[in-house]
Amino acid sequence: MSLLNVTIDNVKVQVEPGTTILDAAKKAGIKIPTLCYSGDIDHKPGACRVCVCEVEGARSLVASCVYPVNEGMVVKTTTERVRKARKLNVELLLANHPTECNLCVRSGNCELQKVAEQVGVREVRFPYPDFNREECLDTSSPSIVRDTSKCIKCYRCVTVCENIQTVNALQPSFRGDKVKIAPAFGSPLNNVACAMCGQCVMACPVGALYEKDYVGDVWKALADPTKHVIVQEAPAVRAALGEEFGMAPGTLVTGKMIAALRRLGFDKVFDTNFTADLTIMEEGNELLKRVKEGGVLPMITSCSPGWVKFCEHFYPEQSAHLSTCKSPQQMFGALAKTYYPQTAGLDPKDIVSVSIMPCTAKKYESQRPEMSDSGFQDVDYVLTTRELARMIKEAGIDFVNLPDEDYDNPMGEYTGAGTIFGATGGVMEAAIRTVYAVVTGQNLPDLNVTPVRGLEGVKEASLTIGDLGEVKVAVAHGLGNARKLMEQIKEGTSPYQFIEVMACPGGCVAGGGQPIPTTDEIRVLRAGALYSDDAKVQAKRQSHENESVKKLYETFLKEPLGHKSHELLHTCYVCRGLDVLMDQDDKKKAGGSK
Amino acid sequence: MKVFRAHILVCGGTGCKSMKGDEIRQALIKEVAEKGLADEVRVVDAGCMGYCAAGPVVVIYPEGTFYQKFQVSDVAEVIEEHIVKGRPVERLMYVPPEGTAAIPHMKDIPFFGKQQLIALKNRGLIDAEKIDEYIARDGYQGAAKALTEMSAVEVVNEMKKSGLRGRGGGGFPTGNKWDFCQKAEGDVKYILCNADEGDPGAFMDRSILEADPHAVLEGMIIAGYAIGATKGYIYCRAEYPLALRRLNVAINQAREYGLLGENILGSGYSLDIEIYQGAGAFVCGEETALMNSIEGKRGMPRPRPPFPAHKGLWQKPSVLNNVETYANVPQIMLNGGDWYASIGTERSKGTKVFALTGDVKNVGLVEVPMGTPIRDIIFDIGGGIPNGKQFKAAQLGGPSGGCIPMSAVDTIIDYEEIIKVGAIMGSGGLIVMDEDTCMVDTAAFFMEFCQDESCGKCTPCREGTKRMLEILRRITKGQGRDGDIELLEELAYAIKDSALCGLGQTAPNPVLSTLRYFREEYEAHIYNKKCPAGICKALAQYTIDAAKCVGCTACARKCPQGCISGEKKEPHVIDQSKCVKCGVCMDTCKFGAIALG
């Protein structure tokens, strides 16, 4: 197909047919201001009308994010007509937005702020409404907070929850200026089938959706001299934390992260990767058991709590397919208050177990009633990568110039297999390495199982593993892709034995708690850091080679799937279905306009 | 077929039905039967005849005697005198306002005589629920010709020749729209009818659907054939139960006769039509919002391109046309595009249906050729302004349109000519306003409607119209400020320029139009705190004319605020600072001494 010739602000460019004015302008070196547009989630409703521009011959201004160019098109993006309309539209949005930038969690990283700056709004000539914050704030969920007073109706959260995650927890209700993005019947988020994945938070350009903050609780625990506060961090955190301090995406900051945590006052800094390796031991053996004994197949990973909740809501009858293994976070939590105090001579009741996660659903997971096999809440507080960064900044720690430090024992050792858990396909690859070795007694000729890597929505691989024969596996990331595999299972046509599902597109490196923004480019860079860590840094690349894990089995658990493992490291699931839980207050609100 | 010597047609439009039209019809049927005339005289539930001001309307054929303001109590006399004895009843006939002589025949009554019926060709002449009557008046001949004698491309070309432009308000050349879709690639295509008619007070489409639903079906069959549609939908607002019923009956009858379904008239072309009901949103009359609605989604418009001709309903090539547009199509096929193009002006061909309402004597539904001066519609057909009041303006195009003041009343009905004077053709709502109308309040009324109906997707419409309404309401409440007019204009142009769909793009029109012709009225509200028309209560004052006041103290005794003072037999005075403008004093005064102004 031949290229099209387009002129934008007197700059001539050639682009492929189907290119939007916005993308053509980028090629011409012009960054037209946008607000609701998000290329990352393919969201271009043309709704905010900030990116409008003039096209010669067109009657009204057009939205550049969605209008395709044609041959010979002449575009002007800085005429008085355009600038006036753009500025007025931003002014109108500001006139309906609380004026508390200084207090907002997104201050400094807010797209409304940025666009107001770019178009140069200096006054708001319309009266602000009474924002009625009480009615606008929804803090029902342990993971995510909604503040509809700040919503600018960009509909990104709706797109990501409906099209990509296929959950539909957030939808617009009512019309005109009474439009409210909310769960069904205006219910609190905790009462509907929300996976807590936080992709809505990642998509939100302003502070209308954000993580529930537990930083205060953690400071309190750190300040309590009677408490022994330990911390674990997911692999995805170390691949992204640096971005919050201006470092390039894809910089692995493990050593600095450990140093910062020590300076914050944590008594022991451990690693979730340790229990990632442990999870492979348990789950690999569980898979082998199901294959040999005719158990429920395909078996599906269960380390993604957003995915688990999704499965409990939408496919409760298929929950037997889920591995009974807890996630690495929760396996860690259970051991943190049993195994660890035993080795350290501590009283488990004095232990506060904190985790740093790229994930908002982990906050919910830690509070599930089943997650207290130690006799206490196994994981007390979960902080997202963003919250940790705020703590480090609050403490004035010069993160970028910290020296590299090492993990503590006995729960700080990890292999390359553990660290790749943060990328989509990582759990599968780690499992295959160990299962292959256990069955055949030999290592995989090439430890890099590349067919399960990358950003394609559903990935497949097929391997011959000794006398297991051909084993077919699949990897899905993003709940919409998980749904495709679940439908196959429901119909009885699934060809796989083992499936890895991560709720977030890209896997945990792009979780709901990671630095904002996250784009596909950044996903690849963050995952790249983990694969590098696996291939080039870590001495050992297979979970069963982890000496600390071996010691754990020798001295405490005895054997995989043994009695102790079942007690502490395995869990059960709940049939949740899709009914909206209505309590008395909801019944009053349902059906009415606020 | 049975031949009757007389037909009594009872207007079956919603207006006449709401004034006991059904009871009148039942009473006529009963009386005819009791007189043993059931084999000779037929009573018909006809469609809307259009002359709402004269309703309930009964017309007797073959002479075409027009009876107005018919009541159940008139039944016996009309049957006895007119039907049995052949003596039409003069007291029920139409008498023009200036004259005394009754005009017995419909075609001689000015309201009807000056109209040219194409879309409304069958109104008041057939039973809308009998397909045979539609067929008897050349019904389905156009479709037969198109499907069996013409190719799809020839049909499109004929439509282009006719110059027919979309009657829903957009005015886009229908032939061109069909052409784009005909050329679009795809096995599945849709032909859609917009029967959502959301403009407040508009009932052109409703009347066509109630009076002549088959005309719309035939138009859709022809259009479907032209573009290669595999399925048709009529999106009809749920607030039109009679129209929905008549459509359902018509579709079933058409199916029975093989005019819908597989292999229509042996042509090889198949089409079936389904009705989809609206759910109460004006915005769903917008092309792409309508399609989203049929798809089960929220009625919000989509950005264009891609245009529906290429990616419409379910992302398939689709054509959406208005009810009135379709009603013209069968006759264009039958009589030829040249015939249609011979009526009207150079760029606006054919006729247009208007719902003539408001402060005008002959309220009703009229169809006139393009090129008719607006003055003729209001003062000739419409009969002018009642109660001796002066004409002030006519709103053309409803909430998307503008006002035509006296200075522009000679503008002819033509898409481009109307735009020149700051209004739009719209779907045909023509609201006449007399001197007792406040143009600022009128603009606020239409803005409130748009704000209420805005889907909320785009910033300028969702937030901008709210702010415009805020300013307008402040002005009508006497809180207007210097700079308000300029801010209204700034908002208006930015919203027109940047809104996503037609609702937002045209919402500022009434404000811009009233500012163009009645700026001084805005200024009076803002700077003098006065409403010249005396409508905005907050700006009006009740004052007692000392010359007329006899000091009877009746008003002072009735005043709930106790703010009227005065001695007996002395002129009284109202304390404006305490007055809440309830108006009881003016209602009480027997001497006309209290006025609002």
Name a few traits of the molecule.
heterodimer; A: 594 residues; alpha/beta; 4-stranded parallel beta sheet; 22 helices; 18 strands; globular; disordered C terminus; B: 597 residues; Glutaredoxin; Ubiquitin-like (UB roll); 5-stranded mixed beta sheet; 4-stranded mixed beta sheet; 23 helices
Overall average pLDDT of chain A = 95
Derived from helix and strand composition plus strand pairing, the structural class of chain A reads: alpha/beta
Number of helices of chain A: 22
- Spatial order of the strands forming the largest sheet of chain B: 10-9-13-11-12
Question: Can you describe this structure?
Answer:
The complex is a heterodimer of chains A (594) and B (597). Helix content of chain A is 35%, strand content 13%. Chain A is of the alpha/beta class and 594 residues long. Chain A has a 5-stranded mixed beta sheet with strand order 2-1-5-3-4, with helices on both faces. A 4-stranded parallel beta sheet of chain A has the order 12-11-14-15, with helices on both faces. In chain A, a hairpin with a 6-residue loop joins strand 8 (171-173) and strand 9 (180-182). Chain B is an alpha/beta fold. Chain B folds into 5 domains: 6-92, Glutaredoxin, CATH 3.40.30; 131-341, Rossmann fold (3-Layer(aba) Sandwich), CATH 3.40.50; 351-434, Ubiquitin-like (UB roll) (Roll), CATH 3.10.20; 439-527, Up-down Bundle (de novo design (two linked rop proteins)), CATH 1.20.1440.230; 541-596, Alpha-Beta Plaits (2-Layer Sandwich), CATH 3.30.70.20. Helix content of chain B is 38%, strand content 14%. Chain B has 23 helices and 17 strands. Chain B has helices at residues 14-17, 21-34, 75-84, 110-113, 131-136, 141-149, 152-162, 174-183, 204-211, 213-227, 241-256, 287-294, 323-335, 337-341, 374-381, 415-420, 439-453, 459-476, 484-498, 502-506, 509-527, 554-558, 584-588, and strands spanning 6-11, 41-46, 58-61, 65-67, 190-195, 231-236, 273-277, 318-322, 351-358, 364-369, 391-396, 402-405, 429-434, 542-544, 564-565, 573-574, 594-596. In chain B, the strands form 5 sheets. A 5-stranded mixed beta sheet of chain B has the order 10-9-13-11-12, with helices on both faces. In chain B, a hairpin with a 7-residue loop joins strand 15 and strand 16. The interface between A and B is medium-sized, with 37 and 32 residues.
